[in-house]
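user: can you give me the structure for this one chain? tokens are fine.
assistant: on it. calling the predictor now.
[tool input]
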Amino acid sequence: MARTVADCALFRNVLAGPATRDPASMRPAVRIPADLEGMQRPARRLQHRAGGRPVDPEIRTRTRAAVEALRAGGVLVAEVEIGWRLDEIKRALWAHFGRGDVAGILALDSRCPGVITPHTLAFARRGMAADPTPDSAAGKNLEAVIQEQLDSVIARFNAFALPTLGATAFAAGEDYVETQLVVNGVALDHFSDASLTPAFNICSAHPVLSVPSNRASNGVPTGVQVVADPDDDVTAFRVAMAIEQTAGAGFGTGRPPVLAIEDAQAVSPEGPR
């Protein structure tokens, strides 16, 4: 996390590079240049329906504004959609991370009750109940399908942008254990389904930056994530810088959020609250 794209580039240059204890680290180190302006390469916008997630109309509007600002600056833009399905992404992630991580969470809760946050514990128990023995081989096959779907789209362009979150806000103090987050009239199965980032935990060779796309009407920042070709960090930073200087330029105004409880919708067995 950083205040600006330039600050993030500085941090990335310090953090990234060859590591003797990590054979998978990038060799040689690729530095992000100080001058990130003058973007010459085409960028694309990924349609907000990717993965089957509902997106709040304000988020859709802010994402479109960010992309149109790039178009106005001379960037070639096309609208596309990846055939990702949320249920497949969740199954792949569960097969990859779920078993070991969840076992550790439940073991810690057994030893030290009350240490694990309610939403984390509920997530672990729910996952174990739904799929107590995840099939790692099937998960790997799903990961390959998800990666192929992304490759078939991004191969024709240098980068694309899509919303970071489909929701404009989460209710403060709400752990969403007994309630559901509602996005654009749709009650989500889990509040994390509002995030459009998990697919890139699977397609992790692609650099991804999330930058402000301005603010929603409630004053809460909205975001656009920029995704580039595998290991092409420089392009991701260039596109992010262009968005920061146009659509997200008003983010630093310091206007405090004004968030009414109805702006972060949730439903409980007793109805909306």
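assistant: here you go. Confidence is low (pLDDT under 50) at residues 40-50, 259-269. Helices lie at 5-15, 57-72, 86-111, 118-130, 136-154, 199-202, 233-245.
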